[in-house]
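Summary: Need help interpreting a holo structure output

Steps to reproduce:
1. Submit the protein chain below together with the SMILES for nicotinamide-adenine-dinucleotide.
2. Request a joint structure prediction with the ligand placed.
3. Inspect the structure token block that comes back.

Expected: a single structure record containing both the chain and the bound molecule.
Actual: see attached output.

Input attached:
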Amino acid sequence: MPGLPHSTAAVVGTEETVRSRLDKLRDARVVVTGGGGLVGSRLVALLRSAGAVVTVLDRMDAYPESGHETFGVARGGARLVVGDVRDAETVGGLLRDADFVVHAAAYADVAACTRRPDIAFRANVEGTQVVLEQAARFPVRRLVLVSSASVYGDGASDTAGPQVFHEDQPLFPVSVYANSKLWAEHQTRLMLGASSGTEYAVVRYFSVYGEPQIPKPGSHSWMVPWLSLQARLGRPMRLNGGGDQVRDLIHVDDVAEATALALIEEQMAGRTVNVGTGRPTSVREVADLIAPYFPGSRRIVTPRPEGDPLGGYACVERSRELLRWRAGIEVREGVERYVRWLLATPDATPRWLAEEYGEPEGA
Ligand SMILES: NC(=O)c1ccc[n+]([C@@H]2O[C@H](COP(=O)([O-])OP(=O)(O)OC[C@H]3O[C@@H](n4cnc5c(N)ncnc54)[C@H](O)[C@@H]3O)[C@@H](O)[C@H]2O)c1
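--- attached output ---
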């Protein structure tokens, strides 16, 4: 139900709230790999509020300025294990006692994976293999694999305008990152489910945004923070390729809800769903939403980077049916929340970015 706080959003077709459904997770032992990152930390907070006993496994080195402080995962009552998902002993030690697993750890940046396919392979492929092996070994009830809409690539080449991506359409990754996510999807299907006692579900996130997201150095993903920070620093907002690319911008609070529901909804066993709003937004439209908060803000057109898909938006029929859920936060509201948070949080601007761009004009 658009506009409602995420914890009270009505479930599609029923009066039950998400929060009451998540009550099933009370006292459940949940391991979240990558739980120190943007999405993981928000999910951990939601699981904790539902009464789950949460353990996070994370390297905690994805951001040059401490991920611990950025996303506050250590403050939410979860146990934090700083380690690597490729470490079978550590992963096995945690999954031995787990009821549920969310595998969200990844080298989670398209440009970084293009620059360093070796790291992408180790984190996203080898790391996933270790997590799947250990999940199959122990009586884990369900593993939710976090995947990405990047597996769709540019979709059908003969379609003009923004494309809607349906879970069953042909997949054609156009980046190293996307290819690693697609491999993880297939390997999860092959190693769990019928061939093991552990069920699986796959969630394909579209473009996640929301405070306190900050970009990573050298990245071109995450347009809401990039454009907001460029405007905040008095720099022109950079519209790669003119800003015609579209994304389905899904707020991190909505993503956390959908992921938690994927752990418990019976119909999700062995299924894959899109996690998006079902609405396209172009990069230029996001710049239009941000501009009024930064009077005098400017734009420039920059080249479209390698691996940057033209994009599309989610078909949300299946997520409505199987998760009994829909996104609750409209892009306009989510962007406003982000910009207001940025303006109220001077420390949010990463040092590396301020140094690269210089101090904010008029700051
Ligand atoms: N943010 C998006 O727009 C988006 C879209 C689609 C899918 N995803 C997926 O969502 C998940 C979470 O991404 P995010 O946006 O929160 O990014 P993030 O970088 O904030 O979080 C990823 C976390 O994984 C951890 N990690 C990386 N490699 C690891 C390893 N080898 N061992 C242990 N921990 C490791 C990092 O330290 C980080 O905390 C990822 O799987 C990503 O691919 C994100």
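--- end attachment ---

Reviewer comment: The two ends are 39 Å apart (CA to CA). Residues 33-34, 36-40, 57-62, 67, 84-86, 104-108, 123, 127, 146, 148, 205, 207-208 surround nicotinamide-adenine-dinucleotide (CB under 6 Å).
Status: needs-info
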